[in-house]
Amino acid sequence: MSRLRHAFAALLLPLAACASTAGPRTHPWGDARQLVVVTTADWNASSGTLHAFERDEAGRWRETTAGLTVNVGRNGSGWGLGLQDARDQDEGPVKREGDGRAPAGVFAIGMAFGYAPRLSTGLAYKAMQANDWCIDVPDSPLYNRIVDRSLAKAPGLDQASEPMRRDLQAKPDDLYKVGFVIEHNARAVPQGGSCIFAHVQRAPGASTAGCTSMPEDALRSLLAWLRDDAHPVFVLLPQGEYARLQAAWQLPALADMPFTNNR
């Protein structure tokens, strides 16, 4: 029996060695040094709480913006097409074009935009003009892209319903006065959802068609803080999903969610 035990132990050693050399899981957002997190009560909630974090030299997340109330899709949220592995996605609705849900997951933060010629931000900035539209027509070859309709001629452009200069429309508003692109459905999968932004809220508590909105002063502060060289990402999840995925996705703990792990 003694020899048998020794032989069994010898077999276990290589397995233990392999287990001990396995490194931490890596993600496409592993180089992000800025993180904007929105959590909602559940999949159907139309509002949420925003926190912003910056990674310090030791690799720890430090909170820079805490507990800002924001608005999301009128019908809540659903799994979007982002940087996350689809295998991590648990049961829950899936974001589709026109469903009134904000995309859930992890997304790169794209360019900033607005009505003024310049904006205080570390993101690439585009001043929108009267002919700039985001194409929300799934059959268009320019689906989910912001284009100059005076230059780009393609099927579906005349059906698009997302003017980027909303202040110049028949019923003007300042929703897109300042904002940034949330890179949902970057590959433009038809019907996957389009034109997802962080933008100015219509009013406190007013839900969106799928974007994330907030007060203008808070959004301007966020834009002034964000910078391209920090590879910023945007995370939106219901609280239960955030708690489930926080450790695996190497996300920071949230003060208003004490059941998440400190990192």
Quick structural summary:
With 263 residues, this protein is an alpha/beta fold. The chain has three helices and 13 strands.
How many DSSP helices? 3
This entry's quaternary arrangement is single chain
Shape type: globular
Sheet having the most strands: 10 strands, mixed
Instruction: Give the C-alpha Rg.
Output: 21 Å
Secondary-structure element order, as H and E? Answer: HEEEEEEEEEEEEHEH
Total count of domains: 1
- What's the helical proportion of residues? 10-25%
Indicate the structural class.
alpha/beta
Strand content: 25-35%
E-strand count: 13
Distance between the termini: 46 Å
The whole-number mean of residue pLDDT values reads 89
Unreliable stretches covering 5 or more consecutive residues: 1-23
Can you walk me through this structure?
The N terminus is likely disordered. The strands form 2 sheets. Strands 1, 2, 3, 4, 5, 6, 10, 11, 12 and 13 form a 10-stranded mixed beta sheet that branches. A 3-stranded antiparallel beta sheet has the order 8-7-9, with no helix packed on it. It is globular. The protein has one domain. It has 263 residues and is of the alpha/beta class. It starts with a helix and ends in an 18-residue tail after the last helix. It contains 3 helices and 13 strands.
